[in-house]
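User: Fold this; tokens only.

Assistant: Input:
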Amino acid sequence: MTTIVVVDDESLITDFLSFFLKAEGYTVHAARDGRSALDMIGSILPDVVLTDFMMPAMSGLELAQALKKDARLAHIPIVLATAAQGSAAKARPDLFAVVLDKPYPPPRLLDALSAALGRPNQRDDSGSR
């Protein structure tokens, strides 16, 4: 089973994403900021990280930089979801496998996760998996 760490300081977002992604068959762990996510990621070694950009304690950018500096964690693809910093993040393909502009439809998230994991699109033309 694919393991995802979802990082966002808004509990409604982490709750929704956790529920949605678990229903899609993923194992999901949620963190409220980059600093706690960094500790979590180091202990569980997820397959992919889905993070917000603007958060307290450590931003999504700072989290990505910290992950890429750690040899044990540098291989983990990072999907960034942001409402404000999309263009700046897209200029950093060394840090982010995919950048999603908020708001995004759930099928777009599934496509982004598949792309970050190097898997073909798993949805059929009707939009279901």
